[in-house]
Amino acid sequence: MTETTAANGTPCAIVTGATSGIGAAIASALAAEGYALLLVGRREAAGQAMADKFRAQGVEAAFHAADLSDTTAPEAVVQAANAAFGRVDVLINNAGILIQGTAEDTTDADWNRVMDINLNSVFRLSRAVLPALRAQGGGAIVNIASDWALVGAKGALAYAVSKAAVAQLTRCMALDHAHEGIRVNAVCPGDTDTPMLAAGLTGAARAQRVAEYGAAIPMGRIGTPEDIAGVAAFLVSDAARYMTGTLIPVDGGASAD
Ligand code: NAD
């Protein structure tokens, strides 16, 4: 069931980082729930092909190319959604990057790049979308954080700090906008089988990493993008109408260990 019934068209969801991994799975899950999709990503050809595929399935979809580290990009994303669908009901802040390193091997440039994409763009896009959500009488923002927002991480300082800040942004925005019917929640994935996790590995080396990481997880395997997407779709649905400010680990039990 969708968050908002269409008064002036199909409810619309913006999904960032939609062309791969978890973002692509979330786009499919929301399409199945009847949302029109504004797919946001950097890769024009992949994004347009994805929008074409959804349209061929009867799903209203458009692609908007954006580098979210550009400070002007978030306003343009919301304008694109309004232009394509005339409304916005849901924002999924999914785009992110991982640069590994302890304090000593994280350069200022690495630190700033991670913060620009993982944190600052989430702030700017969430701020930019509020008027459009308010115009619908409410809506839902889901931030894709990480279980490293909840527990410490070794060798991924900037990334883990950025995700912990997203967790706090989630709680604070939830409190600031609860009275407007705008719900803000976060999904905190553990290791998930996406290009980010494989980091350039292919074939046997990739399979070995997936197996090694899976063996360390209580449920005995790493997550699939669909494992994460199902929880994101739940959070925007009417079933989660009384939930805001929550951080939900989806990690096969890893953060409970
Ligand atoms: P991914 O690399 O497949 O997806 C990340 C997406 O973000 C890509 O589509 C990429 O193009 C996009 N992106 C990166 N920088 C961008 C920029 N400047 N502008 C616009 N788009 C940009 O990896 P994923 O695992 O699907 O990651 C999705 C989210 O899940 C990320 O926020 C990531 O931190 C989080 N996450 C992933 C894991 C995991 O193990 N894979 C675990 C916890 C959290």
Task: Give an account of the 3D structure.
With 257 residues, the chain is an alpha/beta fold. It has helices at residues 21-32, 44-56, 73-85, 108-135, 157-177, 195-198, 203-215, 225-236; strands at residues 12-16, 36-41, 61-65, 90-93, 139-144, 182-189, 247-250. The protein has one domain (12-199, 225-248): NAD(P)-binding Rossmann-like Domain (Rossmann fold). Helix content is 45%, strand content 15%. α3 packs parallel to α4 (108-135) and α4 runs parallel beside α5. The longest helix is centred in the middle third of the chain and has 28 residues, at 108-135. 46% of the residues are buried. The structure holds nicotinamide-adenine-dinucleotide. Residues 17, 19-23, 41-42, 66-69, 94-97, 117, 144, 146, 189, 191-192, 194-197 line the site of nicotinamide-adenine-dinucleotide.
Low-confidence stretches: 1-7
**Beta-strand residue fraction:** 5-15%
Biggest beta sheet attributes: 7 strands, parallel
Radius of gyration: 17 Å
Total number of strands: 7
How are strands sequenced across the largest beta sheet? 3-2-1-4-5-6-7
Q: Mean pLDDT, rounded to whole units?
A: 95
Instruction: Spell out the CATH superfamily.
Output: NAD(P)-binding Rossmann-like Domain
Instruction: Give the second-level CATH assignment, the architecture.
Output: 3-Layer(aba) Sandwich
Subunit organisation of the chains: single chain
Structural descriptors:
8 helices, globular, seven-stranded parallel sheet, 257 residues, binds nicotinamide-adenine-dinucleotide, alpha/beta, 7 strands, 15% strand, Rossmann fold
